[in-house]
């Protein structure tokens, strides 16, 4: 909307007023940001306008700094690391990371910070003040950047775009985290073990494992977790609930992350390709697991016997053979197992459910493996061959029985 905005200083109170609403402030820069946020177009000739976007300011210096966003110029460089930035103030804040200097101290708790902005945000926690309000809903927050992020939920705007794939998001931090998928970089490292992650939240969850505090316990088995979210995911293994459903096909799963990976199959966002075969996937760790089939690498080794395998989960399952642990328990009878797959098959015996159905005949099975064996009968394939005669069969157990004829067992 075109509203005449005269940035006018009151001689008595030294306040700057917006003529579009009742907003006032003691700082010109704050008023300018208010005007930008409210989409008020200025007619004051004293304002300096950007020739590329809608930004305007009251000083040539501010405009010069702003233009660096368009040009990419970062003239201020750190002499300790590779950091560079657009303003001297930003460099000064950055240098505090190297010196550990935190001059801004809270007088109500032990919090201290190297940045005035972070300090102000912290103080709002004590006062409970949330001065920035959304005009669309009842949301309010402690700073303008949070409000801008929130407003994008209403507008659907995702200004931060990946230059490698089609991913776009609402915040710069989310884009930075996403880029780690392409680079494989894992900057967040545990100071106790070799674990590292691309996300700070994953590192925090990992560190809790070292403290051995797992307050969230399953009421069905001995499982316990460091987070309530993980416990909820675990409980779905007992209940069979798959609350995350694909909107394109019949796929459903227990975890949102699994659904996200599945959806990439529909969007063709398969970023990681094997250079030995035609296999491709949408995560680096899946590709690493696959490549081990070609290389024969089995990095996960049992510390009790000679067993080694390609995945950490397989090693965990194997270790239960030594410990006798059977964490997956049937809620109907006394059956328990070391593997979730075995429990699922067992539960089908109680329910008489046979979810795997043949699309050619009426055959159905409680396991996908049995269905695959059945399908060989239709296609006539007999992959198991005797190396002593011409005998072939569809099932490995049949081949074992046949071999006894040659050995006389």
TrEMBL record:
Record-linked PROSITE patterns: ZINC_FINGER_C2H2_1, ZINC_FINGER_C2H2_2
InterPro entries: Snail/Krueppel_Znf, Znf_C2H2_sf, Znf_C2H2_type
Keywords: DNA-binding, Metal-binding, Nucleus, Repeat, Transcription, Transcription regulation, Zinc, Zinc-finger
Any matching Pfam family: zf-H2C2_5
GO cellular component, one term: nucleus
Boundaries of every C2H2-type domain copy: 48-75, 76-103, 104-131, 132-159, 160-187, 188-215, 216-243, 244-271, 272-299, 300-327, 328-355, 356-383, 384-409
Keyword Transcription regulation assigned: yes
UniProt entry tagged with the keyword DNA-binding: yes
Membrane-spanning segments: none
Subcellular location: Nucleus
GO-annotated molecular function: DNA-binding transcription factor activity, RNA polymerase II-specific; RNA polymerase II cis-regulatory region sequence-specific DNA binding; zinc ion binding
Record-stated family: Belongs to the snail C2H2-type zinc-finger protein family. Belongs to the hunchback C2H2-type zinc-finger protein family.
PANTHER family: PROTEIN ESCARGOT (PTHR24388:SF54), ZINC FINGER PROTEIN (PTHR24388)
Protein name as annotated: C2H2-type domain-containing protein
